[in-house]
Write a structure and sequence with these properties.
8 strands; single chain; three-stranded antiparallel beta sheet; 9 helices; Aminoglycoside 3'-phosphotransferase, Chain: A, domain 2
Length: 250
Amino acid sequence: MVRKRAFPHEVAGLAAAQEIRRNATAIPELIASGDDHDGPWLIIPFTSGTLLSDQDAPPPGSLFDSLARLHGHFRGAANVPAGLPRVDARWWRQLCHEWVLPQLDRHGGRHPSATITRASALVSLIAAHPVVPRTLAQLSPTLLHGDVHPGNVLVNGQEAWLIDWGSSRIGPAMLDLANLVTFDSEEFAGYREAWEQSTGLPLDARSADLGYRWAALQIPIQYLPWMIENLTAAEVETALDRAEQALAVL
């Protein structure tokens, strides 16, 4: 087993996801959780496997089946636990002003001043842009893992497990897909099929498309502090290009 320190919303998100774990095999079992003098903790089974980021193979279909069941079960943010962060205009402003911009100041010395100036101006613009509330108001919220990328997917054969639920939140479902697959991919087709089988409802193609367009904006901004600290200035500039293009599309 693995015992780890956790945020309260990590425990809450993973605990809620247990409702569908029997039919969503990529969701880890939450064996136990609690608090001590150092804060919250949780225990999950130890699973042997390889990170998707260390493989050349595509993600197993079971991952998208599990995500579809998670999103479908909690569609409309039904029965989600209290206290989970919600991706709305207020959350977005806080993300930009209280997390991204301070981290740019902290690690900005690693890059040319022109890159940091551009990044700061773009984040400030996007933080208050009217397209944000207008777009988010059109997207149905659900329970999210919140940080689905190849480094958080453990794979063993055709089985996959979503690890690190520390970014659990409520928001548009496509945020859990956009780091792995495109809207027109075979994997997304499998997600759509699993959604429709588990909910008995068609997946709204327009909403999914808009969700991808929103994810194209949120993801480079959300990960900008990590990129500033770990990537080259050219890679940071490419991420800023993507965010500008996504804003223009929205």
